[in-house]
Amino acid sequence: MTTDNLKTPTVALGTWAWGDSGETGDGYFGSHLTQAGLEEVADKAHAAGFTLWDTALVYGMGRSETVLGEVLKRYARSDYQLSTKFNPRIAGTSDNPVADMLEQSLANLGTDYIDLYWIHNPADVPRWTPHLIPLLKSGKVKHVGVSNHNLSEIKLADQILGEAGFGVEAIQNHYSLVYRRSEDAGILDYCRNQGVPFFAYMVLEQGALTGKYSPENPLPEGSSRAETYNGMLAQLKALTDKLASIGQKQGAAAPDVATAWAIAKGTTPIIGVTKPNYIDGLVRAGSITLTSDDIAELEALADAANVNTRGFWEQEM
User: Fold this and answer.
1) Are 256 and 247 within 8 A, CB to CB?
2) Angle subtended by helix axes 233-249 and 254-264, to nearest 10
3) DSSP codes of every residue in 189-254
4) How high is the pLDDT of residue 250?
5) CATH architecture of the domain covering 12-305
6) Span 77-89, pLDDT tens digits
7) Which of 14, 18, 99, 122 could cross-link to 272 by cystine, CB 3.0-4.6 Å?
8) How far, in Å, CA of 175 to CA of 199, rounded?
9) pLDDT tens digits, one per residue of 210-261
């Protein structure tokens, strides 16, 4: 096992949307992004003490990593942590596609090591997991995790790494109020028992749980997330209204409460940050106190919404 322990933050910063082209309505999220705007986001995040950035080569096929690398040039490398991913679905045909993809990510990000490197999906765990071992030994990767793996795949990956003296040091799966499959499948309990951090992505369901969007004010037209979520916004209204009302009592907003729920469940939420004011929300989320009744009521409303937000890339857990 690597000697320096993975520093797990309360909240990690997501840059999936940074892979969009920057033009409104174009790309997965349909966000309008500029380098100056993202530098402002980064400055605010670092001032608030948020320093772990999560990206992946597949986000915009290198664009997210490249933009993030440019933005982070303004800081010393020791001032932040980088999390990125190997994706079997876009692996090449060389002798070692994992090492090759890592080199691409290092170049995009302008660094010579990755703090936390993930296998992004569970295609052929016995084939790909062993390739992480030489990367750990080389120091180019400090820690490794698995994303979108079910419990048996997590255990198999940990066993393979364990034979070389390493182990799965983090899990990253889709987890939100309306998508709790990792909890139902025992993965959260496993992480708790093993002392392994669970990173939750899509906690805000790409904006659908923020309360900002409604049938009258849908997600950006032409974006992939609009296709997924616009048809279910009416079903989510009772839940987002409750998130807002809990937040109002604590000087916070609906997305802050959804993030606080994920923290209360023992996870590290990865929250996408495209605007400086989103950082204020992360600060608020860290100070929100949710009672067991609040959590139970939110989860009951989430169940009553009866939506399935499993991504096309995800297996059932």
Assistant:
1) yes
2) 80
3) HHHHHHT--EEEE-TTGGGTTSSS--SSSPSPTTSHHHHHHGGGHHHHHHHHHHHHHHHHHTT--H
4) 94
5) Alpha-Beta Barrel (3.20)
6) 999 999 999 999 9
7) 14
8) 9
9) 999 999 999 988 888 999 999 999 999 999 999 999 999 999 999 999 999 9
